[in-house]
Design brief:
The chain is an alpha/beta fold and 192 residues long. The protein contains 6 helices and 7 strands. It has helices at residues 16-31, 44-55, 87-97, 108-122, 140-151, 169-177, and strands at residues 3-7, 35-38, 60-65, 80-84, 100-103, 130-133, 164-166. It has a 7-stranded parallel sheet, sandwiched between helices. The longest helix is centred in the first third of the chain and has 16 residues, at 16-31. The protein is globular. The mean pLDDT is 94. Pfam families: Lysine_decarbox (PF03641).
Length: 192
């Protein structure tokens, strides 16, 4: 893995640990010689992880739709900024550039990006590692809901191996480096 796409909130959230661990992730990426690919914003956790990578001399590529957000401020100090037409192109471009994905805490947009890459892995579009950075149990309710999806018969058990979850940045990245795509059960039940 040379380039990691990070999905993250454009706000800092209510817990200072989110910001601390976003910076920690940036440190781990630089230590491992990995480039950061992300949404291109200077705000929130998005900006925090990018700033830390840049402070340590790492490379950062931002992908931002032209004129789409007034609240998200384009980061002016990136190694590369790619401007695209819309959100669909933003996500497609980030995915094309990335060798893996990590979701930091965030809101609806972060969850949408995370679930899209999980769905893409589920149907065979990619076999890249997907990490869920579960800072201070932020994603624990979501992980429980995902287990409930299996119990309710909407997700196959093997499909939960499409992503890794962890609360330590270095351990999560190491697990992603050692990731082997699972052999998946057939997604769809037999038509009766």
């Amino acid at each position: 893995m040379k380039k990691i796409c990070v999905f993250a909130g454009s706000n800092f959230g209510a817990n200072s640990q989110f910001k601390t661990n976003a910076r920690e992730l940036g440190e781990v990426l630089v230590e491992k010689g990995m480039e950061l690919v992300y949404g291109g914003s200077n705000t929130g956790l998005m900006g925090e992880v990018a700033n830390r990578v840049l402070e340590l001399g790492g490379k950062v590529t931002g992908v931002m739709p032209k004129g789409l957000f007034r609240g998200e401020i384009v980061h002016k100090g990136l190694t590369q900024l790619i401007e695209v037409d819309d959100m669909h192109q933003r996500k497609a471009t980030m995915s094309e550039l990335a060798d893996g994905y990590i979701a930091l805490p965030g809101g609806f947009g972060t969850l949408e990006e995370l679930f899209e890459v999980i769905c893409w892995a589920q149907i065979g579009i990619h076999q890249k590692p997907i990490g869920i950075f579960n800072i201070d149990q932020y994603y624990t309710p979501l992980l429980q809901a995902m287990r409930h999806m299996v119990e309710a018969g909407f997700v196959k058990t093997s499909h939960q191996k499409l992503f890794l979850a962890g609360s330590d940045a270095a351990q999560l990245v190491e697990a992603m480096l050692n990731y082997q795509p699972p052999i998946l059960e057939k997604k769809w039940d037999e038509v009766k």
